[in-house]
Amino acid sequence: MPVIKVLPEPVDLPGPLPEPAVDDLRLETVLGALSDPLRLRIVRKLLLESEHFDHTCGWFGLDRPKSSLTHHFKALREAGVTRQRQYGLERRSHVRVEDLNARFPGLLDLVAAWEPDEG
Amino acid sequence: MPVIKVLPEPVDLPGPLPEPAVDDLRLETVLGALSDPLRLRIVRKLLLESEHFDHTCGWFGLDRPKSSLTHHFKALREAGVTRQRQYGLERRSHVRVEDLNARFPGLLDLVAAWEPDEG
């Protein structure tokens, strides 16, 4: 099974953008946010390949318009899958591994094991 | 953790309606089918409260138009979450527990543990 990486949280981070508290996470909302191949790809890459604590959308190398990526990253944050912080002009995301494992054990393992459809 | 019931398969069942093979199940599609409170309710009730091998939509006691229920049951089947069989004029559903556990271990436990939003 792929190993989920959790990198240490740096000090002096900017505060997170608005997000649901861990107790307010809803399974139907989280599953909805993950029911899209691009969003699964984003979350899986964060889980398995993170090089820093959090990453800008440019790091993912996704060939989509910036407005589309902004929408997808916001959807993940608003569902509670990722946490986003504003660093000057850019936003960076990481997965809320601890919160999701506490509320929905095993879900992130399914995402980590997901493979894009080759068809 | 709630216990998922699997009732024995009767003999001489009618054949299943069209559905994806177990190897063709896609995580994004299954999560999409489960990202709806009504569909979570249907699947959870089948997992925890089944009285027979499979059930008609009337058994669920859902206060929705029949056309809406037909749509939701079809969406669950086409995603591979449930198997539907035609018994004369009515269709009955059960959850593909073995197939889903094989492909997405732990996912049905999350559905079984789900609670409807009280808000």
Automatic annotation (TrEMBL), chains A, B:
InterPro entries named in the record: HTH_ArsR_DNA-bd_dom, WH-like_DNA-bd_sf, WH_DNA-bd_sf
- Please list the GO terms describing molecular function: DNA-binding transcription factor activity
> What top-level branch of life does the organism fall under?
Bacteria
Q: What is the official name of this protein in its record?
A: ArsR family transcriptional regulator
Q: Which organism is it from?
A: Streptomyces lincolnensis
